[in-house]
Amino acid sequence: MNPTPYPQRTALGLAASGVPVLPLRRGKVPFGNCPSCVGNACGGRPNMKTPGPCHCPSVCHAWAAATTDPAVIASPAWAAAWQRAVCVGYHPGGADLTVVDLDDANAIAWARTTLPATRTVPTTRGEHWIYRGAMVSRNAVRLGVDIKSTMAYARYLGPGTGTLADLPDTVRALAVKEPPAARPAAHAAVAVPAGVGGECPHRTPAYLARGIAIAEQRITEASSAVHATAYRTFLAVLSRHGRCGCLTDTHVARLFTAAQAKGETARHCADAWTNARTTLGL
C-alpha cells in the first residue's frame, strides 16, 4: 500500500480541527472541474454560498470543494488529486476565519501600523495575518493587500505564530471602500442635506442609532427605484455622519443588508456607497 501523500496527511489534521480543506495543484491553484461539472453542467450554483454545490465525488468547484469530512479527503475519488497536489488549500470563511494576504514588505509595514496584532504566517513574499471571524473576500483592497474569507481559498503554510485576534472593523472597512476600477454612475441631481463637514451633530449614540434605523426603514419601504432610494439614503447618512468618524462597519452593514433584502446586490451597494462618498468628496 502506498503511503499517504504528505499534503493529504496535513489536510486530514486540519479537517479534524474544523478547517475545510482542498488539494492545490501546480501553480497553487485548485484542480479544474471534472467533465461532468465543466461550465456548471452539473447544475452547481454559479454563486455558491456553501461548499458542496453538487454531488460529484471529484475535487470540483474550487473553494466549494473544501471539506472537513475525512471520508471524502481519503476517498479514491480524491486520491489522484493528492498524488499531484503541491500543497493544501483551505476555505477561511468556512472555518470562520479571515486571511489578510500581505504581498510585500510595504504591505506588511502598513499592517503593523494599522491593524491589531494577530496570528501571522510567513509566505513566499510576505505574510498572512489571520483573524477570527468571516467577511466578504476582495482582492486588491489596497496595494499588495488581498482579503480571503468567504467564497475564496488560501494556502495553508503552517500554524503561524501569535494569538488569534477577533476580526477588526478596520479590516471589514477595507471591503467597502472604493474599488480601484470603480466608475461613478450617473445619478439624478440630489439635494445634499446641510451639515456636510460641520461639527458632528449627535450628542449621544442614540442619535446615530435612530438615524440608521430611519435610513433602514426608508430603504425597506421603497416600492420602486430601490437603487436610487438606496443611493439617496447612503448620501443622506454620509452627509450627516461621513466626516465625523462615527460610522462603523456595523452601521454600513445594516444599510447594505436592508438594500440587499430589497434585491440589490452587494456590488451595487458598494458602488452606490462609493458614488455617494465621491459626490460628497469623502
Please give a structural write-up.
The chain is of the alpha+beta class and 282 residues long. Helix content is 35%, strand content 14%. It is built from nine helices and ten strands. The protein has helices spanning 6-16, 70-73, 76-84, 105-114, 169-174, 205-220, 226-241, 249-261, 266-280; strands at residues 21-25, 29-30, 87-90, 97-102, 119-122, 127-132, 138-142, 145-148, 154-155, 165-166. A hairpin with a 2-residue loop joins strand 7 (138-142) and strand 8 (145-148).
Beta-strand fraction estimate: 5-15%
Rg on CA atoms, Å: 22 Å
The major sheet is characterized as: 6 strands, mixed
Instruction: Work out the helix count.
Output: 9
State the end-to-end distance.
64 Å
Number of strands: 10
Which structural category fits the helices and strands?
A: alpha+beta
Helix content: 25-40%
H/E order of the elements? HEEHHEEHEEEEEEHHHHH
Shape: globular
Detail the poorly predicted runs: 45-52, 177-199
Quote the average pLDDT: 80
Task: Give me the secondary-structure topology.
Layout: H1 6-16, E1 21-25, E2 29-30, H2 70-73, H3 76-84, E3 87-90, E4 97-102, H4 105-114, E5 119-122, E6 127-132, E7 138-142, E8 145-148, E9 154-155, E10 165-166, H5 169-174, H6 205-220, H7 226-241, H8 249-261, H9 266-280
A few lines on this structure:
The protein has 9 helices and 10 strands. The chain has 282 residues and is an alpha+beta fold.
Can you give keywords for this protein?
6-stranded mixed beta sheet, about 280 residues, 4-stranded antiparallel beta sheet, 9 helices, about 15% strand, alpha+beta
